Amino acid sequence: MATLIVNQPPVGGFSFDHCKRNAYLLGEANKVGSSLPTARKTGTTICGIVFKDGVILGADTRATEGMVVADKNCSKIHHISSNIYCCGAGTAADTEMTTQIISSNLELHALSTGRVPRVATANRMLKQMLFRYQGHIGAALVLGGVDCNGPHLYSIYPHGSTDKLPYVTMGSGSLAAMAVFEDRYKPDMEEEDAKRLVRDAIAAGIFNDLGSGSNIDLCVITKGNLDYIRPHEEANKKGVRTGDYKYKRGTTGVLSKVVTPLNLEVVEESVLTMDTS
Amino acid sequence: MNTRGLRSQLKDSVPVAGLCPQGAYGVQDSLRSGFTSVKNELLPSHPLELSEKNFMLNQDKMNFSSLRNIQGLHAPLKLQMEYRAARQIQRLPFLQSSNLALDTLRGNDESIGFEDILNDPTQSEMMGEPHMMVEYKLGLM
């Protein structure tokens, strides 16, 4: 057993030992008619917009597992650094881990250079990592932040391509959100207008896409200031019960009452001690 | 993290080591790697397996060839000499070495990747048999 790894030094990272076994199990499961459990996806609407002073990122808060809502209030806007935030769509674990790794790397890089990190650096790190894994890491991200060169907004796809745009949407509800953006976006908007636009875009995704739902989270990033508004608005309130099945006292009328006392005598009394030995 | 020269990709081809058997004489080493089947050797179990196995090698080759094109032959030669020297600083084969010098040279001490988080070799449940590993390293086996 131990001799199996004499010539191979153990390395970290992904291990592909079980891939063949998993493929075989999947084939067997499909033959019987069942299927293996799926990863939890976020089936999302995320979007970002550049306005006059900075960047606003918006996201819904529903995480789905197949056809079931797994998390009604999950947080999809991840912290990369104090001036850069990233929304993630796709497989929830992938977006979570990827953003955490890039956040750590960016922090180390900032300590090494002694400067505030730039959004382009985070973008390049993410793009190189996602391309290395050829799209098997299912993370579609909207990266936004303000650095020394101004506000920047990038969209990053799972295979590693990126776009630098003034407004982006990602996720299953991206078409609904993009429709709202295309209709009402203007360059150099004011903060309140931009917040309302992002809120409307996410609401469009929430109400028209099954994979998105619950609340709207917003993140407003300006030079030197950060506003993480969670939740900005509870678009879908869980319903309040209108009726109650408990009946009040006196609902049923009492017609007659008969009381019969039970006279019991004490016949025998014995005490049994517990066996505590 | 990645440096690419302009024409370096066209010049040097990067051969990828495949899944051929690891033992001496190119034959499967049943003692060390267990039993084998033709199907296992022909196809990788995952599309990323080959590229991940050779990732560090390919990165180094790419960086060295672009460095050679920019600064001349002396630059990669000196660096490779340093790498070779750093790679020799190791503990005994069955113990986990920190590879601190090698990491510093490569720049890995300032970055975190999946190889630091997943499947940490210091936490692996299997350990090589000490005597066999030392004999193998010394060439006595």
TrEMBL record, chain A:
InterPro entries: Ntn_hydrolases_N, Pept_T1A_subB, Proteasome_bsu_C, Proteasome_bsu_CS, Proteasome_sua/b, Proteasome_suB-type
Any one GO BP annotation for this protein: proteolysis involved in protein catabolic process
Catalysis: reaction(s): Cleavage of peptide bonds with very broad specificity
GO MF annotation terms: threonine-type endopeptidase activity
Localization: Cytoplasm; Nucleus
Principal localisation: cytoplasm
Cellular component GO terms held in the UniProt record: cytoplasm; nucleus; proteasome core complex
CDD domains (alphabetical): proteasome_beta_type_7 (cd03763)
Domain Proteasome beta subunit C-terminal: 235-271
Keyword Acyltransferase: no
Keywords annotated in UniProt: Cytoplasm, Hydrolase, Nucleus, Protease, Proteasome, Threonine protease
Active site: T44 (nucleophile)
One Pfam family of this chain: Proteasome
SUPFAM superfamilies: N-terminal nucleophile aminohydrolases (Ntn hydrolases) (SSF56235)
Assembly behavior: Component of the proteasome complex.
Function, as annotated: The proteasome is a multicatalytic proteinase complex which is characterized by its ability to cleave peptides with Arg, Phe, Tyr, Leu, and Glu adjacent to the leaving group at neutral or slightly basic pH. The proteasome has an ATP-dependent proteolytic activity. This subunit is involved in antigen processing to generate class I binding peptides. Component of the proteasome, a multicatalytic proteinase complex which is characterized by its ability to cleave peptides with Arg, Phe, Tyr, Leu, and Glu adjacent to the leaving group at neutral or slightly basic pH. The proteasome has an ATP-dependent proteolytic activity.
Homology family: Belongs to the peptidase T1B family.
Matches recorded under PANTHER family: METALLOPROTEASE TLDD, PROTEASOME SUBUNIT BETA TYPE-7
UniProt name for this protein: Proteasome subunit beta
Organism listed in the record: Champsocephalus esox (pike icefish)
Automatic annotation (TrEMBL), chain B:
One of the GO biological process terms: proteasome assembly
InterPro entries membership: Ump1
A GO CC annotation given for this chain: nucleus
Keyword Cell membrane: no
Keywords attached to this entry: Chaperone
Record-stated family: Belongs to the POMP/UMP1 family.
Stored PANTHER family: PROTEASOME MATURATION PROTEIN, PROTEASOME MATURATION PROTEIN UMP1
The protein, known as: Proteasome maturation protein
Organism listed in the record: Champsocephalus esox
